[in-house]
Amino acid sequence: MAWANAPIKQTLVFNKPLDTHVSRLLIKRLTPAYKAIGVDISIIEFDHKSSLAAANLGELDGQIGRVIGISKEYPNLIASNTPLMYLNLVLLTNKGQCENCRIQQLSTISHNPSYPFAQKFIAQEKFKGEVISNNNLASQLHMLRDRTIDGILVLEYLLTHHIDDATLAHFDKRIVSQKPIHHYLHKQHKAILAQLDLQLMQSAEATLEHKTPK
Hints:
Helix content is 30%, strand content 27%. The protein is elongated. The strands form two sheets. Strands 3, 4, 5, 6, 7, 8 and 9 form a seven-stranded mixed sheet that branches. It has a two-stranded parallel ribbon with strand order 1-2. The chain contains seven helices and nine strands, in the order βαβαββββαβαβααβα. The termini are far apart. It is of the alpha/beta class.
């Protein structure tokens, strides 16, 4: 293949991720680590839905941050050994509904199908109740307050990014699962990834609190 013995590139190109607190944090952690090994990164506008396939083909140099395990489907992408952060899946329920609620105690759960983390968790827990897909977090919260549903599975960063504290005060929030987010490079850049991993391990910014699910 053309990239089998590709020389080290001094500028790596990634698609611009969705603009969230998490993506900004990932870029903030990666930029100085790359700079320390003499590599620049260029972040370009690119169709988000096709970015994984493009990175696997070498059209992009990798992915800024993805949950661990995508190499099974995209075998040309290799993950950093060091996670950049941890992604928390939380269960929202009404105040006082149950103590330390688990989804097995609920009859109806809502989640956003655009984020497969929740879907996988529901399958893993063998949830027997009704699952309602809803892409609108404000709508989900309204349904929860009206007790149309019993709980919402949502990524924690979406709550902090989109929902104010006064609204969240109506609900109990519990971390139910956690996944590490890793940086991915196309395997033609494995030498760069090895250098980058050393920087991430040595960097104080890569020392992250790991919240254990309760």
